[in-house]
Design brief:
6 strands, globular, Nucleotidyltransferase, domain 5, single chain, 183 residues, 43% helix
Length: 183
């Protein structure tokens, strides 16, 4: 199932490179994966595309093999179309009360890492606290504060929605800033 594109995307969508480095941010999931391509602009990053990869709703939710294959094929499609210089994925967060969620998320992260490795694109991971702190200055910032900051920093006309796309934009923007901050 091909990725869904959202109205967030502005700028020239496509594979022709007009400016600088491209960063693919991914919010991994087996049912819904958010992705966002940002490109380094002259003054600020530019959103090239943002969207969702969904599992085929006609399939059984327990058909893990199909979900993993669908995610893998879709990520390869995004990598091939936009040719990013780096892939950024939020680190796995496991809560002892929900171990199954962590295991399912690990499946999604695994196929993302595999697809990136096959295309020889380096992958970086950041934990959620680091993403929030880098974006807003507060590692415990609520989602709406993160969304407002992303909207302002990327010059978006509306808050980034849905949350999966907002999270993909956040992790990509975090990587953009992390590369520019002195170590």
């Amino acid at each position: 199932m091909p990725p869904e594109h959202t109205e967030i995307a502005h700028g020239a969508v496509g594979s022709n490179r007009t400016l600088g480095q491209r960063i693919l941010g991914i919010d991994p999931g087996l049912q819904i994966t958010g992705y966002a391509i940002i490109e380094v602009g002259l003054q600020k990053p530019i959103v090239r595309e943002a969207g969702l990869i969904r599992s085929d709703e006609g399939r059984s939710p327990s058909d893990m093999a199909y979900r993993v294959l669908n995610l893998y094929d879709s990520i390869l499609g995004v990598l091939d179309q936009f040719r990013p210089d780096s892939v950024v994925v939020e680190q796995l967060y496991a809560h002892y009360q929900h171990p199954r969620t962590a295991i399912l998320m690990a499946h999604a992260r695994g196929v993302i890492f595999l697809a990136a490795a096959q295309r020889q694109v380096p992958v970086t991971s950041y934990n959620a606290t680091r993403v929030k702190k880098t974006i807003t200055g507060n590692g415990r910032a609520p989602k709406d504060q993160v969304q407002r900051t992303i909207q302002r920093e990327l010059g978006l006309p509306d808050l980034p929605e849905p949350p999966d796309v907002a999270d993909a934009l956040a992790v990509a923007l975090c990587h953009y800033y992390a590369q520019r901050l002195p170590t």
